Amino acid sequence: MNIVPDTSVVIDGRVSEHVESGDFADATIYVPEAVVGELESQANDGRDSGWDGLSELQALATLADDGEITLEYVGRRPDAVEKRDAGEGEIDALIRDTAAEHDATLFTSDIVQSEVATAKGIDVEYVEPRTEDTTVESLSIEDFFDETTMSLHLKTGVRPMAKRGELGDMHYEEIRDEVSTETQLKEWSQEIRNSARASPDGFIELSEEGMTIVQFRDMRIAIASPPFADGHEITAVRPIAKTELDDYEFADELRDRLTDHQRGVLISGAPGAGKSTFAQAVAEFLSKADFAVKTMEKPRDLQVGPHITQYTELGGEMAKTADSLLMVRPDYTIYDEVRKTDDFEVFADMRLAGVGMIGVVHATRAIDSLQRLVGRVELGMIPQVVDTVVYIEAGKVEKVYDVKTEVKVPEGLMEEDLARPVILIRDFETGQPEYEIYTFNRQVVTVPIGADEDGGRESGVDRIAKQEVEREIRSIAHGHVEVELRGRDTAVVWVEDDDISQVIGKGGGRISDVENRLGIDIDVRTFSERPSGMPSEGAAGGGGGQPGQIVTPEVTSRHVIVPMDGHAGETVEVQADGEYLFTATVSRGGEIQVSRGSAIAEELEQAIDRGKTITVVPS
């Protein structure tokens, strides 16, 4: 009897079973090199099927040594293209050719392989594929969790660590004295992968060389290994709180707002603030309020009920997922997380198609999440894409913004011909405007409203106007330029003697063009005309005349850090050449950290790049 097994029965261990039962006694077993190549490829990818198949080949070798069978390896190995196209039947075709060549019976548990071989006149013995027990009680790593554990962090050569506590008060701490070994991590990783495949409560979200992401029940588990990581590592995250919308402030108002009609909502906050927990509460509320709700996630880790379908990338692109969802026509879609330009574009496209969208965005201030749309979505369309911003801090709703467009003169500007579309951001609770976003001199600016009008501190409009006047004049002049605002629509510009004619232009034409663009009357003077004793732009100070401490900020990959040793806990103003930038509280470590990418950080980095003197003044 001649037998050619295919990959399916080798993986299942069915060949050695048939030999030991006597069904294949004294048979000659021809193992195609195509099967060996496929198993080797699977094992190299870390897949259990490959290792199971190689173990079966070793068992067959032992049976051959004992004289139970004759074992031969025949045929050719599949090339890279054939391995890549294994799902298209390329390797199965090589195995059928081997069976025909050796006048052998093809042994398989693949029904498609069996039917094709029968159609081609090849003898076939088909066995039902073996199914595994899908009951998985628990994972070994669950022993590390208690009721306060949000995430577990295991790495070779390091004591087990965990984040434990409550939302807004998490601590990263050691939880065991014993150092994790590579053997332990490999065993736990294998158990996690096997359980995800076998259990209906789990699935493998991503499988790449060096990284596997698994969803098992309520845990999202990332398994990293060399060369992607510098060592074997397991990170398991789970929610520690499940909330309802009623648990949050403004619950009644938000319920009415969300059910009035489909909205565009951004849920923002710092990492670990509780954004996803709030998003889950909103999703559950909307579903119970008779709305069809779906999610878009990569990876899928929102903890929602079975009536809410969770989608991930289709063909590696969220844009394809969005196209499919538009056919499903959900009332609301939860998009977790909106980070890259492609994400914002997909979010906007679905919102403009009439789907209610709720996006989860990392931001250190409520206004920062809205500013991330600038440049990614046409300015006038932003309120149609996002009309509500919810800022979460320490698991609570800290701020809610209402976003609308009005045609008006921006706050602080006087000329009626300066009226333009303005995005007005109001506090949802008080109805008071807090920010305006509009185009000023061909640039999109975000201006805070309600700054001090007494002259002790420049308002947001004053700062923007001053920066724009300075930018315009610097583009004309060659030497030093300083700007002094004398009112809402008047400024004095100080330039070098050699530059004044260049700035004013023939018949005053050049400065008139600048005035018309900015809507500000500009008086151009030379530094030689400046009264003695008048402070220059670079003088340290501000904040009501108090002396300032000159500092040298450090720009890292994630933060701009302002050193303030000896001032922990103090509230201070950060200034650039005497111009107010922002107010902050010095941390216990004696520094101010500003996340890069935020509006504050960009303004601070621009000041540093321009060589301005950064000072810190007690608030």
TrEMBL record:
Domain PIN positions: 1-115
Keywords (A to Z) from UniProt: RNA-binding
SUPFAM superfamilies with a match to the protein in the record: P-loop containing nucleoside triphosphate hydrolases, PIN domain-like, Prokaryotic type KH domain (KH-domain type II)
InterPro entries given in the database record: AAA+_ATPase, KH_sf_prok-type, Nucleic_acid_metab_PIN/TRAM, P-loop_NTPase, PIN-like_dom_sf, PIN_dom, T2SS/T4SS_dom
Annotated region described as Disordered, given as residue ranges: 527-547
Pfam families: PIN, T2SSE
Top-rank taxon: Archaea
GO molecular function: RNA binding
Family: In the N-terminal section; belongs to the PINc/VapC protein family.
Name by which UniProt lists this protein: PINc/VapC family ATPase
Provenance organism: Halorientalis brevis
Phylogenetic placement of the source organism: Archaea, Methanobacteriati, Methanobacteriota, Stenosarchaea group, Halobacteria
